[in-house]
Amino acid sequence: MTSATLAGLIGAALVGLGLYGLIANPQPLRKILAFNLMGSGVFLVFGIVARKGAAAGLQADPVPQAMVITGIVVAFAASALAVALVLRLFEAAGRATLDPDAWAKPPDGGAGAE
Amino acid sequence: MSVLQALDIGLAFLVFAVAAWTIFARGAFAATVGYVVYGLLLALVWIRLFAVDVALTEAAIGSGVTGVLLIGAAARLRAAETASDEKPLSGLTRVFAAALCVLVALALASVVLLLPDQGPSLAPLSMQKLPETGLGNPVTAVLIAYRAFDTMLEKVVLVLAVVGVWSLAADRYWGGAPGEARAASPEPTLAFLAQILAPLGVLVGIHVFWVGADEPGGAFQGGAILAAMWIIVMMARLTEAPQANAFWLRLALVAGPLVFLAAGAAGAIFAGNFFAYPPGFAKPAILFIEAFMVLSIAVTLPMLVAGPPRREPRQ
To answer: For position A1, what pLDDT does the model report?
Structure first.
C-alpha cells in the first residue's frame, strides 16, 4: 500500500469520525470541531487525487492542491462566523444549547428559578 | 517494510487517535487542544503527499489560527458546559449514528482503493504554461494566474466573514474594538514570548510570501504567519485590537480583493481578457497583487479571531 492510499484511507476514516461527532456531540462548539474534522478528511481524499495526478515532473497535480488551500481558508472563515454566533447566543441567553426542549425550561435547568 | 512505510503507518495511527480524541474527549477545552495537535500531524501527512504548500497552509491556518479561535471559544463557553443543558443521545440513536458513519467511511475508503494509479491530471498543462507566468511554483500559478477568479472571490468571502462577525456586536458596541484592552502590566512570560517571537515571525512570514513565487509558500501561508504574530502580540496584551470603525483597518481588509479586481479589470483592457496578464509583465503583476493579499490576510484572520466588537467606540 502506498503512502498516498494510506492517506486516503485516513481521510475516509476522518470523514466518518467527524460525521459521528457532528451527530452525537450535543454542544455546538463540539459540532463545529467535528465539522472541521470532516472537512479536513474531505481535503485529504482530494489530496490523494492530486497525488495520483503526478505528471510532467511534478509529484502531485497542482490544481487540486490550490483548491484545497482555498478550501482551508474558507473553512476557517466559516468556523469563525459559527463560533461568533455561538458566543453571541451564550452572551445573550446565558446558555448555548441547540436542544429546543432546554429552551422551554428556565435557565439553570430549572433549579433555583422558582 | 521500509522505515518510511513504518513511519507512514505510525503517523496514520497517530492522526486517527488524536482525531478520535477531539471527538470523544469529555471537555470541550481538551478536545480543542487535541484539534491543534491533530492539525500539525495532518500537515505531516500532507508533506507525505508531496503537497508542501498545503502542509504549510494546514499548519498555519487549519491548526494554528483555527486552534486559537476554538480554544478561546472553549474557554469562554466553560460556564455553558457545566450548566449541562445538554441531553446526550440515547444509546440506540448512537448505535445508528455510528453505523451510518462507518458506512460512509467504508464507502469512501473503497473509492480510495479503487482509484486508478494514474488519474487524469492538469499537471502537464500547468507546467507547459508556467514559463509565461514567470513563476516557478505551479501551485502559486494556479492560485494567482490560472484560477485567479476563484482566489479573488475567496478573498471576498473573507471580507464577508468579517462583516458577518462584526454584525453580531451589540448595538452600543458597533464600531468599537473587539477583545481586551491593553494591559497596564502584561503577563511577563507571554509578553516575553511575544517580544521575541513576533519580530522573527514577521521576517519568516514575509520570506514565505516572497519565496512562494518559486518554492512552496505564498500569500496565504505568509499572510497567515503574519496574522499569527499579530494575534500573539494581542494575546500578550502588549497592544489591543483596533476599533472596527478605523478607516485604515477597513482599507487594509478590502485592499487585497480590490487590488485583485482592479488588476483583473486592467487585464481586460491591456491583455485582452479579464484576469489576463500582459506577456512579459506577468510576474511583477502577480507579486503586486500578492503583496496586497498578504496585507489583507494578515489583517482579516486576527479580526476573525478577535470576534465582534465588545467595547464602546471612542469618539
So the answer is: 64
